[in-house]
Amino acid sequence: xxxxxxxxxxxxxxxxxxxxxxxxxxxxxxxxxxxxxxxxxxxxxxxxxxxxxxxxxxxxxxxxxxxxxxxxxxxxxxxxxxxxxxxxxxxxxxxxxxxxxxxxxxxxxxxxxxxxxxxxxxxxxxxxxxxxxxxxxxxxxxx
Length: 143
What we know:
Helix content: 40-55%
Strand content: 15-25%
Distance between the termini: 76 Å
């Protein structure tokens, strides 16, 4: 063990911390691995063991304290690109057959959809433009 430099041991530790990162997908292990690489650089520059451990601890804790909240915030955000029925909400449609509380037909995004009005007492005539507020199954709810 005395024949191997300290920086090699730090790189081995960083690689060992990278394995659980890949297996568990926990980013904290990656941050600890980066701390190990920083300690390896410190050892390669000739600093003592105490400084190496301090660099490992400071870099690892700093990454966890700064990067982890940012990653958590991004993970909690909804995707910017709406797809499927979520992309149809808020779109305008053209009434093809009279739409009222019991039903009707609209042309929405180039397709013919069954539709009903949100307000059961409100009716929309052929040729009118309506806004889609929700999709229930294969029926667009319009206003």
